[in-house]
């Protein structure tokens, strides 16, 4: 009996050790001259072997912050374990739209998320330091960020996605701070036109890019995902597209992230086999 009890304790202790761990780190942004917080979720086996891990950069929505995903969808820790990957949730400010603002030097979040955060992660964690081991996605504003950065930095990321993405920022002219990031719609018309995902996807990269877009059928902005889907079909851009019942809320994203992480894990595995 004593031996069984010791064995049980040993098993439970090992199980506790082999669980995802969550770091909250401060990353200095040279482009914005400030420290910005980021959540890093490491899979269970991290630290117990010598392997390097793929990374999914997971972006929050408008009004949110770096801690949104880990507090609202804590099972992303289980997803990190299940799919054996690192999940990184950087702060994109409440309304950066993941742009490098041409009018406000305090909002250079394309550079921060696409370059400064990955540079820190690659330097401090056991990552696959190659585009084949990097993906980026997010919800709502973060869905725009995932597609915007994924396409514009396809030499650095090999996969991107969107959950309930606000993919057409040209029509978001009031109420969501896009005008504060891009400036007047007349004076800075070029930014408004060229920096919407609907325009960005016209420049499909020479390196293949794995893409997943999903949205709830009752979502108030589902038309944006449908339009992006139709445009990519027209341009013959390979992608996965999903619609299922749901609204623009955390109930939907709680499940949507499962599909997205599975998609990225399969992508990483496919790329690994090819190499």
Automatic annotation (TrEMBL):
Pfam families: Esterase. Residues 1-19 form the signal peptide. Keywords: Hydrolase, Signal. GO terms for molecular function: acyltransferase activity, transferring groups other than amino-acyl groups; hydrolase activity. This is S-formylglutathione hydrolase FrmB. It comes from Sediminibacterium ginsengisoli.
């Amino acid at each position: 009996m004593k031996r069984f009890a010791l064995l049980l304790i040993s098993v439970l202790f090992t199980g506790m050790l082999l669980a995802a761990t969550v770091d909250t780190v401060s990353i200095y942004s040279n482009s914005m001259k400030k420290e910005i917080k980021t959540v890093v979720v490491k899979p269970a086996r991290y630290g117990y072997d010598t392997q390097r891990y793929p990374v999914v950069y997971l972006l929050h929505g408008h009004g949110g912050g770096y801690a949104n995903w880990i507090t609202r969808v804590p099972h992303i820790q289980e997803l990190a374990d299940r799919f054996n990957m690192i999940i990184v949730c950087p702060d994109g400010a409440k309304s950066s739209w993941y742009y490098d603002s041409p009018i406000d030097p305090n909002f250079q979040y394309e550079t921060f998320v696409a370059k400064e955060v990955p540079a820190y992660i690659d330097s401090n964690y056991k990552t696959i330091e190659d585009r084949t081991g990097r993906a980026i996605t997010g919800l709502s504003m973060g869905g725009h960020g995932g597609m915007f950065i994924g396409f514009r930095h396809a030499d650095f990321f090999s996969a991107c996605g969107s959950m309930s993405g606000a993919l057409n920022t040209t029509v978001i002219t009031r109420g969501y701070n896009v005008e504060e990031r891009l400036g007047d719609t007349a004076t800075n018309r070029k930014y408004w036109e060229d920096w919407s995902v609907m325009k960005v996807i016209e420049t499909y990269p020479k390196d293949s890019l794995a893409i997943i877009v999903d949205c709830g059928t009752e979502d108030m902005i589902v038309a944006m995902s449908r339009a992006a889907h139709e445009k990519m079909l027209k341009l013959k851009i390979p992608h996965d597209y999903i619609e299922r019942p749901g609204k623009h809320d955390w109930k939907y994203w709680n499940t949507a992230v499962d599909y997205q992480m599975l998609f990225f894990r399969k992508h990483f595995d496919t790329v690994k086999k090819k190499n």
